[in-house]
Specification:
The protein has a single domain (about 5-290), classed as Homocysteine-binding-like domain (TIM Barrel), CATH 3.20.20.330. Helix content is about 45%, strand content about 20%. It has helices at about 5-10, 20-25, 40, 45-55, 70-75, 85-100, 120-140, 150-165, 190-200, 215-230, 255-270, 280-290; strands at about 15, 60-65, 105-110, 145-150, 170-175, 175-180, 185, 205-215, 235-240, 245, 250, 275.
């Protein structure tokens, strides 16, 4: 029987996650304004190929193509009645790529609603995350990763909805920017320390950060998390450097070799799982695997 993700982490080895998804869907024909999650139904072979690219690169786990799969995000495409179908298929595809021995992380992104502005109620948020998490679990997800969060109240609700309605291990990562005065905060003003305390209390098994920073910037964030809590596992999904504009294109400048050079330092700082976010490729993941052996 396969160990749980927490059991694997407890053995002391730093695990490797996957990289970016959106850019590869676009490279395979996803058009601007088109729903990425719909491809789980209309182009499952393309989604599977992307997942296999990361598994073949040596990743220990693969996410699902479901980041915008909540009813709030899908209603922009008139797909709010297909939440269960599209999320279940997302997990089924990644499960097929992962096989029996790798882990599937069901991806859930922010709702796009702001509680303090009255855009949505706590109950509505809870129900939306519950619906998505249950479908991902039914499709074969081992864990749910709630990612790219900036508001602590929404992140806490998502964690609770997942813990209370699925048996999945729950990961939650927030997105931090460096302040001019030093330190890191989310767009809504949350510090890494505040994140750890609130998400652990809500029931998260693993916490961390994704997006907005290259791997070097993630070291300081991880160190702050470790000061706040020395034991909770930490997942880091770093961008391939900070984006730069070249002509009309946004480019992430960090090569696989550059990213891999910082991976052992990030692991030493306390990261339990290291993977990629925007701009990262299977080649980045392959180099991370080699660097962390």
């Amino acid at each position: 029987m396969k160990q749980t993700l927490l059991e694997r982490i407890a053995q002391g080895k730093t695990l490797v996650s996957d990289g970016a998804w959106g850019t590869f869907l676009q490279a395979r024909g996803l058009q601007a304004g088109e729903c990425p999650e719909l491809w789980n139904d209309s182009h499952p072979e393309v989604v599977l190929d992307i997942a296999l690219g990361y598994i073949n690169a040596g990743a220990d786990m693969i996410e699902t193509n479901s980041f915008g799969g909540s009813r709030f995000k899908l209603e922009a495409f008139g797909l709010e009645n297909q939440v269960s179908l599209l999320n279940r298929k997302a997990a089924e595809i990644s499960r097929q790529a992962a096989g029996d021995d790798k882990y599937v992380l069901g991806s859930m992104g922010p709702s796009g609603k702001i509680l303090m502005m009255g855009d949505v109620t706590e109950e509505e948020l809870y129900d939306a995350f519950k619906e998505q998490a249950m479908a991902l679990y039914e499709g074969g997800a081992d864990a749910i990763i709630i990612e790219t969060m900036t508001a602590l109240d929404e992140a806490v609700i998502a964690v609770r909805a997942t813990r209370e309605n699925t048996p999945c291990e729950v990961i939650c990562t927030m997105t931090f920017d460096r302040l001019l005065t030093g330190g890191f905060r989310t767009m809504m003003g949350v510090s890494p320390t505040e994140m750890v305390i609130a998400l652990k209390e809500a029931g998260a098994h693993i916490v961390g950060a994704n997006c907005s920073n290259g791997i070097e910037g993630m070291i300081e964030i991880t160190e702050e998390i470790r000061i706040a809590d020395s034991a909770i596992p930490v997942l880091i999904h770093a961008n391939a450097g900070l984006p730069v504009l070249q002509g009309m294109c946004t480019v992430f400048p960090e090569s696989p070799e550059m990213m891999a050079a910082f991976a052992p330092i990030l692991a030493k700082a306390g990261a339990s799982i290291i993977g990629g976010c925007c701009g990262t490729t299977p080649e980045h993941i392959q180099h991370l695997v080699k660097a962390l052996k």
